[in-house]
Amino acid sequence: MTRLGIALFTALMATQTHAGDVVRVAATGSVGEVMDRLEGAVTGAGATVFARIDHGAGAESVGMEIGAAQLLVFGNPALGTPAMQQDPLAGLYLPLKVLAYEDAAGAVWLAYEEPSDTFGELAIPADAEVLAKMSGALGKLTSAAAGG
């Protein structure tokens, strides 16, 4: 591995954590800025954005506060359809979702569930190519959105 490859791997591991089956990626900028970058990366990759949900605004609308938090719901039939062909119940978990939020310390994170965990109870093998593709896409998209 080249020095650049080692440096990039080290930087990625320093900004990515796993909490159970949830991957958290440290991001720079506000939640809105990070979500704008994520939405741009998703559409730039040819996927469709189905919804952008502002949880923070929802909480404020009922007089409560949770801080900045937005969820992007997106997908690509070329990735999702093979999962649903293997098990139609995959449709319960699709399209994919990524959360951008600010924690209590003011740090901004992107979070998503690993597809192998999301679909773990279904008739889709953990080593299925479709899950590896989804995982790779989520990793690339969140890395692009993280900034830095």
TrEMBL record:
<dbReference type="Pfam" id="PF03625">
    <property type="entry name" value="DUF302"/>
</dbReference>
<protein>
    <recommendedName>
        <fullName>DUF302 domain-containing protein</fullName>
    </recommendedName>
</protein>
<keyword id="KW-0732">Signal</keyword>
<feature type="domain" description="DUF302">
    <location>
        <begin position="53"/>
        <end position="115"/>
    </location>
</feature>
<feature type="signal peptide">
    <location>
        <begin position="1"/>
        <end position="19"/>
    </location>
</feature>
<dbReference type="InterPro" id="IPR005180">
    <property type="entry name" value="DUF302"/>
</dbReference>
<dbReference type="InterPro" id="IPR035923">
    <property type="entry name" value="TT1751-like_sf"/>
</dbReference>
